[in-house]
Amino acid sequence: MGLLSYRTPEGERRRWTFKEIVQGYPLGHPSHPMFVHFPVAFYIACLVFDVMSKIWDFPFAPLFGTWAILGAFAGSLFAVITGLTDWATMTPGSKRRRTATRHMLLQLTTFAVFLVNLIVRWSDRHLAEAEVLWIVLDLVGVGILLVGQWLGGVLVYKLGMRVTATADQGSAGTA
Description:
- By secondary structure, the chain is mainly alpha-helical.
- It has one domain.
- 64% of the residues lie in helices and 3% in strands.
- The chain contains five helices and two strands; from the N terminus they run ββααααα.
- It has helices at residues 18-23, 32-55, 61-88, 95-121, 132-158; strands at 5-7, 13-15.
- β1 (5-7) and β2 (13-15) form a beta hairpin.
- α2 (32-55) runs antiparallel to α3 and α2 packs antiparallel against α5.
- The longest helix is centred in the middle third of the chain and has 28 residues, at 61-88.
């Protein structure tokens, strides 16, 4: 198995399709789970920095929280692309697809809450202490995020999305 091609079970050399590359087949495991950690960590960091600015003397914390939102948005690009690619391969109407759709809608709602948060805080991002509204938006956004992430876990651990029973990931036909 190579980065751009692999051997089929019949011994033929075959190039990976773009979709297979995006889904992580050349790596031997799904790519979506690799990318979701970044926006999750940045969204939670925003909440932590804003709360820290209220508890301790950390005047740069609100600015760091603002940058964390921007980092989450940047990291979300990869998570969205890989997640939509996986979603598109699911059988319409299936339990996996319905759960994935709910997962996606919650993650998009998280994005929307933090987009509002970014707009509200942008002009005051250099304040030494976070505004209460920012923390409320952080809490709402992180709460929605956690429910969405839980549904992502249901997809993998309960519904077996992109879980294979064999160690061989060389074939694009594996689960």
